[in-house]
Amino acid sequence: MGFALSTMQLSSSAFANDGAIPSKHTGEGEDVSPELTWKEAPEGTKGYAVICHDPDAPLVTPGGTYGFVHWVLYNIPGDVTSLTESDSGYTQGMNDFGNAGYGGPMPPNQHGTHRYYYWILALDTATSLPEGLTLWELLKELEPNLLGMNRLVGTYQRD
């Protein structure tokens, strides 16, 4: 299928699509992941992965990737349809802070409003990938098994 949007829906009780992310879920607050819920997964879904990426971050790596990765979570079973706030279950990958797990929004001061894309990826197989994968390593592993995906976009700006 490749990386194309599907009819799956992702939402959060913490913020609306295109809405402001509360400081609780940022590096300036408690730095805990927001609650996420998804529905209308494609038929045959047997696993999920969740990603949070800031494409507005002024970072380009030598490998040509862009933006800043805030969260990589995977090996989520196909019968799961939500994550609780500060969910530390499942397998944590590496964020661009150099840590495993969630690292909330923290754009540079005076850099304007950034968009944070929380992605849900539905897979045709259950996964048992090792801890600590980067976003790009994870996507390489998952791409052949991707059934559908969609996103929830939140915004955040530091003074």
Question: Would you kindly provide a written description of the structure presented here, covering whatever features stand out?
Answer:
It is built from 1 helix and 9 strands. It has 159 residues and is mainly β. The chain has a single domain, classed as Phosphatidylethanolamine-binding Protein (Alpha-Beta Complex), CATH 3.90.280.10. The strands form 2 sheets. It has a 6-stranded mixed beta sheet with strand order 2-9-8-4-5-7, covered by helices on one side. The radius of gyration is 15 Å and the shape is globular. The mean pLDDT is 92.
Features:
six-stranded mixed beta sheet; 159 residues; 5% helix; three-stranded antiparallel beta sheet; mainly beta
Largest sheet: 6 strands, mixed
**How many strand segments?**
9
Strand fraction band?
25-35%
The unreliable regions are none
Q: Give the structural class.
A: mainly beta
Oligomeric state as shown = single chain
- What is the assigned CATH homologous superfamily? PEBP-like
Count the domains. Answer: 1
